[in-house]
Specification:
eight-stranded antiparallel β-sheet, about 5% helix, two-stranded antiparallel sheet, 1 helix, Factor Xa Inhibitor
Amino acid sequence: MSATVANLVQGPATVYIGTFDGTTTREPANAAVNATPAASAWTDVGGTTDGVELSINQEYKELEVDQVVDIPGRRLVKRDMSVKTNLAEPTLANLLYALNDVNGGSLGASGAGFSGYYEPAFTDSATQPTYRALLLHGWAPGSGSNSQSKRRMVHLRKVLSSDNVEFAYKKEDQTVFSVTWSVHYVSNAIAPFKIVDEA
């Protein structure tokens, strides 16, 4: 088998976060796959370490009949998608994103001698979490001899930080926010994700 060198991909992705409104109106157009998303709708969370990992886990249920010993087929019964990364810029704004705004938590303005502060919500009643949307802007398989010239944009339309958020201060290690965003169902008219490759 011969390898198509132009289809080999390597390189980092940039992570953008935006609000979730149940529509696709804030998403970049397919033709804008090579452009930076609009700053009015998307915030670059900054540098990451150890890459950005998109995982799509699919669970299939086997069908069976008494008359056949082989498995006649399978049906998809669950799809669990997630994005894992380490936010290398441990700012209060990134902490707010990693903690899903903590059900109404907020960032306070700066003042004399301090640049700002964070306080989580602490009411005793359950509230709905703050869903977000993510864009992963990375590389796609190229064409011709220039294998790294094409871009790929992954639209993740409804996400929630669903794992423990961890960060540590160590002498020998960089402080990062470890975060996992899980992808959720949007509606019967909007798919939970879309992947666009540049032509």
